Amino acid sequence: MKINWKQKLSSRKFWAAVAGFVVSVMIIFDADATSQERITGAITAAGTLATYILAEGSTDKAAIENKDE
Fold first, then answer.
1. Are 18 and 43 in contact (CB under 8 A)?
2. pLDDT, tens digit (0-9, with 9 covering 90-100), for 14-39
């Protein structure tokens, strides 16, 4: 079974799950609220960036394929 990483990394649900998991672990280890907010912000920013890069890559690929036809 092959994982489609492009689809996973561009999924908002995936990034929400990652953030939820990381914050839950931080709560278990008694991290302060400020640290939790910063980590959640960093994960959200990474998810946004990954989604943008993958979307632009798909757009560029489609444009090249249409140009070749």
1. yes
2. 888 999 999 999 999 999 999 999 99
Q: Are 15 and 44 in contact (CB under 8 A)?
A: yes
pLDDT at 69: 66
> pTM of the prediction?
0.70
For residue 58, the enclosing domain spans: 32-64
Widest distance between CA atoms in the chain: 58
Half-sphere exposure of 14 (CA within 13 A, CB side): 13
Sign of CA dihedral 28, 31, 51, 9: negative
- Does a structural domain hold residue 22? no
